[in-house]
Amino acid sequence: MKKNVFFEGFRDGIPIGLGYFAVAFSLGIVAQNAGLTPIQGFIASFLNVASAGEYALFTSIQAGVSYAEVAIITLVVNARYLLMSCSLSQKFSTETPMIHRFLVGFGITDEIFGISVAREGKLNPLYNYGAIAISVPLWSLGTSLGIIAGNFLPARIVSALSVALYGMFLAIIIPPAKKDLIIAAAVAISFGASFACSKLPYIRELSGGTRTIILTIVIAAIAALIKPVKDEDSENSAHKESAQENSDSTSQNNTNQEANS
Fold first, then answer.
1. How far apart are CA 59 and CA 70, in angstroms?
2. Could you give the residue ranges of the DSSP H alpha helices within the chain?
């Protein structure tokens, strides 16, 4: 039974891993521009497992920022995985040891989170281990091969492959921006604010990493205050309570009408 659960996760992780391999190859080009070796790129990808986080990491290294800035910007960009891990832990049985929760949290990505929450019933950590066992190595291998390719390919091709990563980010931000005006406004404001901060006196003297950290926290906080994300469970409970109240009211009215008759 345990083997079956593991291989189910492994099976579901194959298409995820193949997609990761392609994205990580482009990240490898960025890592090569930052001066990382294939082994360093493999380790960085294996320990990070996040496209946006690794892009921030590699570009920060290329910009020569301090270790503290690298750590903070990576933490800020990857903060959403903390929330995903906490949310996913609710699907585990109360008897699941803490070590499994930590290990599953380490391998959480948007896609693995998606297939995990979609499973019915309580979540077995072996399912996540199966998905992680195929997707994370392919992700790390893609980064290493991207670095190797960057060392041999002509400069024009390397430049073209670097642009492919921006396409990935556009694919991430455009769909939610089309559905939510607040997200679209936040994206547009972030572009404008980033450009303005690179030109304003004093602020432009800050490193790119520091400006990114400040803008990310400030814009995200303002957007959260203007339009906080509603709790779906609370909404569903409210709807159920409202429906129950309406049903009780209807039943009471029918009873009164029958009594009057």
1. 9
2. 2-33, 38-48, 51-63, 67-77, 80-89, 98-106, 110-117, 125-152, 155-179, 181-197, 208-226, 232-260
Average pLDDT per block of 10 residues along the chain, 261 residues long = 84 87 85 91 91 85 86 82 83 89 88 84 91 93 89 68 60 76 85 87 73 78 78 52 58 57 55
Residue 215 CA from chain centroid, whole number: 18
Residue 97, φ and ψ in degrees, nearest 5? -60, 150
The number of C-alpha atoms within 13 Å of 230 and in the hemisphere containing its C-beta is 7
> Residue 79 and residue 65: Cα distance in Å, rounded?
20
The Cα 74–Cα 54 span in angstroms is 8
Structure tokens at 191: 């572009």
C-alpha atoms less than 13 angstroms from C-alpha of 137 in its C-beta half-sphere: 8
Contact present, 28 and 41 (Cβ < 8 Å): yes
What is the Cα–Cα distance from 77 to 51, expressed in whole angstroms? 10
Q: How far is the C-alpha of 121 from the C-alpha of 53, rounded, in Å? A: 31
The owner of tokens 């099976």 is: 11
* Inter-residue contact 46 to 143 (CB < 8 Å): no
CA 224 – CA 221 distance, rounded (Å): 5
Radius of gyration in angstroms for the set of CA atoms belonging to the chain, rounded to a whole number = 24
For residues 56 and 77, the answer to whether their CB atoms sit within 8 Å is yes
List CB contacts of 169: < 8 A, sequence separation 6 or more.
52, 55
> What pLDDT, on the 0 to 100 scale, is given for residue 42?
95
User: Please, are residues 56 and 73 in contact by the beta-carbon 8 Å criterion?
Assistant: yes
Handedness of CA 194, 57, 146, 143 (dihedral sign): negative
